[in-house]
Amino acid sequence: MRWLTHLGGARVTIGIGLVLVAAGEQLLGLAALFALTSSHLAVQVLKRAVAPGPSVRREWTAPGID
Asked: Which pTM does this prediction carry?
C-alpha cells in the first residue's frame, strides 16, 4: 500500500501535469501545474508568516521554577 501514498507525491503530481501538456491537453495540464505551484507558494508564505524559526524557540520551564 506504500505505492498509494506515493501517488500524491511531487513526482507523480508534476509528472501527470506534464503528461497532460504533452498529450495535447495543454489547458488542463497547465491548470493543474498552476494550481500545484500556487498552492505550494501559498503554503510557503503562510509557514514563514506563522511558524517561528529555530532562533525564536525557547526551552520550556515549569511555572514557578527559575
From this structure: 0.65
Query: Which of these, 11, 8, 32, 12, lies nearest to 20 by C-alpha position?
Result: 32
In 3D space, the residue among 42, 19, 46 whose CA is nearest the CA of residue 30 turns out to be: 19
Give the model confidence (pLDDT) of 9-66 as tens digits. Answer: 888 999 999 999 999 999 999 999 999 999 999 999 998 888 766 665 566 666 766 5
The set of cell numbers assigned to 22 is 504533452
User: How far apart are the C-alpha atoms of 45 and 31, rounded to whole Å?
Assistant: 21
Q: Which residues of 20-56 are buried (b: 16+ CB within 10 A; e: fewer)?
A: bbeeeeeeebeebbeeeeeeeeeeeeeeeeeeeeeee
